[in-house]
Amino acid sequence: MTRLGLVFLCVLFSSAALAAPGDPPDPDPVADPAAVADPDPVADPAAVADPDPDPAPSQPPSEPPPVVRQVGEVIATTTRGERNNLDTPGNITVLDREAIEQSGARDVPDLLRREAGVFVTQDSTNPEGYRVELRGFNNGGGNGSGTLVLVDGRRANEPDSMVTDWALVSIDNVERIEVARGPVNAAWGDAAEAGVINIVTRSGEGPLRFEARGRLASYDAYQGTVFAGGSAGPVSASFFLDGQHSDGYRERSDYRKHGGVFKLGFDIADLARLDVKAGYWSDKRERPGTLSEMQINFLGRRAAEPGPDDNFNRVRTYNVDGTLQVFLAEDVTFKTTAWYRQRRDRGTLSNVTFVFDNDDETQVVGVNSQLVVDRPIFGHANQLVLGGDWSSDKASFDSLFDDLSVFDFDSTTKTRADRTLYGFFLQDDLNLLDNLILSGGVRYDRNSRSATNQLNGDGFDVNQSAWSPRAALTWRALEPLSLYGSWARGFRFPNLTEAFGFFGFSPELEPEKSTTYELGAKLRTHHVDANLAVYYMTVRNEILLNTEVSPPFGQNVNMDRVRHRGVEFSTTLRPVEWLELYGSYTYDDVEITRDRLTMLEGNRIPLVPKHRGTAGARVFGPFYTEAGVNANIVGSRLFINDSANAFDQMDAFQVVDGHLAWRPQIGEHVRLGVEFNVYNILDKQYEEVGGIRTVFDPVTFLPMGQKRFFPSPERNYEVRFLVEVRR
Question: Are 696 and 645 in contact (CB under 8 A)?
């Protein structure tokens, strides 16, 4: 890794030196007074995009639209204060609306799987089955998530499992995505041990516009979305509606969804801004289950697991969010975001040997507050951010597990649970020199959780706390190049699902606590973007589902010590205006280094591939046409439940996708779009996720240790349509 880093740094210096004389200097939004004065540069595309973001109407129809890119992006994920990406320590990438449309991705996880350091799996054929994780925390051995997902400042991780439900995030309503890899607990607290994915949805700021999108795809899938919004004086408003239908690649994988989001914003003179958002979603998701190799060969890859045909989960959720920004001075801003969210899940999961029924409800109330002071100290630029967060989760879980085999075992739960989190933080970025920035911060969090089984009176009440300091140094070696080194402590509290256990409480779980060292480099020019990060992380008490404990189902335990180390590299090249080439490579080595309970030292964590990468190209042709191809490569990995590393690994796979698009501009006010996408062009047969059966089935005689798979779709197609009207 050291040699690779030295070689890459040499390439960065050489590229920067070659690009600098012929390229205009990158704008620095932090040094630009106009960018500082803008109350919300993240929400204003003009603050982070090229000076002329929409030159298409003035171009002759025979010329291709230029590649729209961001130089010196403004980001807000690591310190919660807006900074130039090159001035911020960490491997951070920004995807704007233009990049989202040009990707051809069908949803947000499909887009994120192309990014270095991001690992995406799908254990179903509808959006419910997505898992998106960073730096080896891929839910391969436990119930929780180490990646915090924010949507307009609100935590999107589910309060019971801390896993994000990606079915509730529509790509057509996303304006911008920031991906910050590595511990960001010092700024955001619980669940940010692996990083943060910050999603900003579309708003009504700017001229009045209306947009209608439609999709027709394989497996009788169709979708329609509508977005409309605009500003009138101090008031802005927008609404987004989405309806989806799909029969799914496999039998018993139907998906139905409808819902929408309404936003309203008010500018209160030049003193403050208030934004209010309300959303509602309802969907039904069928579950196809797993198949063995024999069942795949006999029944086909699209078959559902043999058993009852009523496996489903019905979800209804609504939320109300509000954000208030107060501009106390030109360089002092106070911001607070409050939210309320309620969700109900009702479902059934079964096969020929068991039935599991659930009726769950969760309610979440939360507040994030911060004060940003962007004021020099003794002539040196300095940004201070301090604040606090509070959230309260209430959950009720009613379930019935009925074993239909000869063991005739059943378990009924009627649990009520509460969790309260609060934290206080202080962050500071000080320019020691014009090109040398010292960053530091510290945060204290406390977690109180309790639960009671109303059937037998069992329960627990636990209080835990964690400190998460960080320190970093960033050197702007050249105008388009920055180098950084960082140290951080991270943590994750046990979630409610882990604390419950499968058939009883596990309140003795300790918080995960990690120490991370990272070196990296970032380059931004008009022809080259590149990121490199090399990290080493030690996690104490990492929470894993250990199948060597309490067989056959296993038990969530604290693993004494787990090592995460890796390399993340990504680059985008624009040799000419009409061509864009990109690629990424990720090396993740996750190993148990100490286990006094079951002696698993030296074993790898299930489902984490050591090697994976992406390669792709986009061509911008004449008459507003474009074409793209993307290849995802994932290396071999262990099956879920294989804590002992006793089985052969799952096969590596490569998937190639392609798309063609025509997006003509009709005058100054109308834009049309037609796009044709082909997924898995080479028609590969592969499985992203697989597990090991942990029990012998006396009904079907399926053996313990049998490999089970979630077959992934073969070649499939999609056509998209767009009509956009602007005032």
Answer: no
CA distances, 303 to each of 248, 289, 312, 643, 712 (Å): 11, 9, 16, 28, 12
Which ranges of 319-417 does DSSP label H, i.e. alpha helix?
none
DSSP 292-337: EHHHHHHH-TTPPPSS-S--EEEEEEEEEEEEEEEEEETTEEEEEE
- Residue 504 is predicted with a pLDDT of 59
Rounded-to-integer distance, Cα 667 and Cα 166, Å:
37
pLDDT digits (tens, 9 = 90+) for 93-152: 999 999 999 999 999 999 999 999 999 998 877 787 899 999 988 755 556 788 999 999
Please count the CA atoms within 13 angstroms of the CA of 111 that sit on its side-chain side.
28
Position of tokens 């979440």?
364
pLDDT per residue as tens digits for the range 636-674: 999 988 888 999 999 999 999 999 999 999 999 999 999
Asked whether 600 and 584 are in contact (CB, 8 A), the reply is: no
Its domain, for residue 634, covers: 2-726
Q: How many helices (H) and strands (E) does the chain have?
A: 8, 36
The one-letter code for the residue type at 546 is N
Contact 653/608 with Cβ under 8 angstroms?
A: no
DSSP state of 715: S
The whole-number pLDDT of residue 76 equals 75
Q: Coil, strand or helix: which one is 128?
A: helix
Among 519, 520, 517, 447, which residue's Cα sits nearest to residue 489?
Answer: 517
Check if the beta carbon of residue 261 is closer than 8 Å to that of residue 676.
Answer: no
Residue 368 identity? N
pTM of this prediction?
A: 0.88
161: phi then psi, degrees, rounded to nearest 5 = -110, -15
**Would you place residue 162 in the very low, low, confident or very high pLDDT band (cuts 50, 70, 90)?**
confident
- Within 10 A of 403 (CB to CB), how many other CB atoms are there? 15
Mean pLDDT of 227-243: 96
Count of structural domains within the chain: 1
Please choose, from the candidates 112, 111, 113, the residue with its C-alpha nearest in 3D space to the C-alpha of residue 102: 111
Q: CATH number for the domain including 146? A: 2.40.170.20
Residue 27's pLDDT is what? 38
Closest CA to 520 of 583, 570, 580, 572: 570
User: What's the CA gap between 275 and 264, in Å, rounded?
Assistant: 6
| Separation of alpha carbons 678 and 676, rounded Å | 7
90 DSSP assignment: S
| Under 8 Å between Cβ of 588 and 608 | yes
Query: For strand 195-201 and strand 147-151, is the pairing parallel, antiparallel, or unpaired?
Result: parallel
